[in-house]
Amino acid sequence: MSQNSSRSAKHNQSVIIYICAAGIFMLGMSYAGVPLYRMFCQATGLGGKAVQGHDIDKVEKMTAVKDRILKIRFNADVASSMRWNFKPLQSEVKVLAGETALAFYTATNPSDKPVIGISTYNVVPFEAGQYFNKIQCFCFEEQRLNPHEKVDMPVFFYIDPEFVDDPKLEHVDTIILSYTFFEAKEGMKLPVPNFMAA
Asked: Which ranges of the sequence are coiled-coil (predicted)?
């Protein structure tokens, strides 16, 4: 009987260790999942993420597709814990595929304390994300606003001319660029894909 109870105790202990290890692994993957997914989406343009990085020669030599006007709408959100006021300065702009455009968002810290924010973005419809190229933006970088400070933040972008040749997007004339700001801890860095690092 003693030998059976000893085996049973070891078996129970092993099961508990495996369950704890699996729980710790799943917790770790839940924290790593968001940055890994973000890097994947930025690299591939899937999941509605705009493609970061661009070929300067391509931008300089690109010609606009004049027979297709696209409406780019802008959206701004803040996480529930974020104390900023954040909004686009224009609700939409009209651009041609192959034409660069500039838009601005504004953020205000109405609190009496400095607040550091960091933003993420997405593009809807998701299929358009691979053609939405941002030359300059404020995403994935810490933005510190002092008490009652207000800043305008530019987004310089273009829609790749190949957009007009994609049969999945033949009836799409409106694209939404949406940013969400989250409060960040001082020194917090989001992982940046290698192709974005300068």
From this structure: none
What are the per-10-residue average pLDDT scores of the chain (198 residues)? 72 84 70 54 47 61 83 94 93 94 95 91 91 84 91 93 92 94 69 48
How far is Cα 71 from Cα 176, in angstroms, rounded to an integer? Answer: 8
C-alpha torsion sign, points 162, 155, 176, 64: negative
Whether the Cβ atoms of residue 180 and residue 120 lie closer than 8 Å to each other: yes
Separation CA 139–CA 179 (nearest Å): 8
Integer Cα distance of 100 and 79 in angstroms = 30
Eight-class DSSP state of 191 = -
Q: Are 166 and 127 in contact (CB under 8 A)?
A: yes
How far apart are the C-alpha atoms of 192 and 189, rounded to whole Å? 9
Q: In this structure, which amino acid lies at residue 77?
A: D
